[in-house]
Amino acid sequence: MNRTLPETVQSGSGGLYKISYDTIVIDEVAGSVFVKNILVQADTFVLKSDTFSGKRPEVLINLHADSLRISGVETPRALVNKEISGRSLLITGVDLQLLQLEQQNDSSSRDSLPSDVIERIYYDIMKELKLVRMDSILVQDVNLSVVSFASGKSGMTSRNVSVRLNDLLIDEASLSDPARIFFSKQVHITADTILLADKKGLYKYSFTGFDLDSRSATLITDNIAVKPVFSESAFAKQFKTQIDRFNFTLGPVRLTGINPARAMSGELSADSLIVSESAFRIYRDGTFPRDKLNRVGQYPHQVITKIPFPITIANAVFRRSFIEYKEKNPKTGQSGKVQFNRVTAVLKNITNEKMALKKNDKLLIDFDAHFLDMARVKVNLSLQLGDERGRFTAKGTLGAFDATKLNVITEPLGMARVDRGKIDGIRFNMNGDNYQATGDLGMIYDGLKISALKMEEGKSGFKKEGLKSLMANMILRNKNTAGDKERKGRINNERNTNRSFFNHVWKSIFEGVKDVAGMPPGETSKSAQN
Predict the structure, then answer these.
(1) Among 3, 152, 290, 345, which one has the highest count of C-beta atoms within 10 angstroms of its own C-beta?
(2) Rg, Å, the chain Cα set
(3) What phi and psi values does residue 243 have, to the nearest 5 degrees?
(4) Tell me: the pLDDT tens digits for 103-154?
């Protein structure tokens, strides 16, 4: 065995792999094998040589394991019937490196799915054996890295991974058995950390406390983070035009009712997604020019149906969330923040599957939060999934607040100040599509007074523009008419197709506010719009 195994591996791989180990102990009576200090190395020079005649692999493997132990193997069955049946396989202390090779462009090629890999394993094994059965397989203390062979850059690293397969069976029927995943009745995978880097080098993605269990049909992770590599100013300088910079954290995150068999075919199917706590921070530097892209067809409910793999999540719940949009104004050089605190969001019917869409093509979103941590806001969205026209409905309410609290937004972004006033409530209702939104808005308010501002020369502060302020307050209806419960306005907004779905909804609400307050419809000053 000491002599033939290395020779078999080297010849069987066309010289691509070499295997070595310090110790191997075989007890045929007890049916046990113990191997210590295993090293498997890929010889990359073989790929470049004329002597290599095999198919060029997508991935090369370098592996070191402290030990491998097999117990309870029925030796006679293995020798006579070409059947391997055992009690357990334990591999510990593994350092595994996967070297990704550059593939030639091929229009017919695609990324391998887990089901493709399993099928290849199945046919390779069944060439030599009739059956493989193992009560349990455990690979623990694994450190994994995925590295580009060409650049040497790491695309993924994972620490302290553990993989357990229970009741593994490979025979004629196991490949098509829907009750098995990786040929096993149960797969349980855990990892302390999983780190990913995007190809553009802009973000790092991390998962901590990862736990996937096929028997309970759950996937749990303590934390998911999307972290930008560059600071706000440095990130903006990576592009010629404005682009959003994302900084997200979520966790714990729990997926329940997942379908392992569908996952092996590259699908995501789950009963529920629950995010216990999260923070979403978005930054945009407005000092750079906007791009000229037409964003028709890029509403959230249109993008979902364009995801290149089937997805179905019946319910998604985000609790204790925080959302911040921060933008730098090119005129003031200052940044304003729109924040939503204590957010709860419920999404129902997230899917792009054709059969599911025939039964129900509405994505429903219920949003409940506190605007600037002061006024409660509730929004209900109904989005028509996959609709080419992008149709949606939106209705919502905003609770009472002191209007002067808006100055943290209006001064840096709009060069306007609210001197006094109270908003007792706003409600809106609209229907929209790719190009238009119409509806109505009601507002209860009193005592509004505003000032137009301009930058002081040589200073970072603002000063009041008297004439503009006077004219603005002359036009402004500063309170509700006597006896009215609310002053009503119309929503009639034509979308700027360069802007996003959320910008369209916000500008539509603003059109209603302008109509209530007596401001001219359509395009007004940039300060007023901000």
Answers:
(1) 345
(2) 31
(3) -150, 145
(4) 544 444 445 666 677 777 777 777 777 889 999 999 999 999 999 888 888 8
Query: Tokens at residue 300, please?
Result: 């959230």
CB atoms within 10 A of CB 335: 16
Q: How many CB atoms lie within 10 A of CB 194?
A: 19
How many residues can be counted in the chain?
530
pLDDT band of 526, cuts 50, 70, 90 = very low
Tokens standing for residue 177? 């058995």
At which residue do the structure tokens 């009745």 appear?
185
Q: Which two tokens stand for residue 88?
A: 């357990």
Q: How many Cβ atoms from other residues are within 10 Å of residue 233's Cβ?
A: 11
pLDDT of residue 109: 44
Q: List 92's β-bridge partners, or say none.
A: 67, 140
- Residue 370 · residue 377 · CB < 8 Å: yes
Question: How many Å apart are CA 135 and CA 29, to the nearest integer?
Answer: 19
Q: For 313-455, where are the alpha helices, taking DSSP H only? A: 354-359, 407-409
Q: Where are the beta strands (DSSP E) in 101-183?
A: 131-148, 154-170
Q: In 3-state terms, what secondary structure has residue 479?
A: coil
Contact between residue 253 and residue 299 where contact means Cβ atoms under 8 Å apart: no
The predicted pLDDT at position 525 comes to: 41
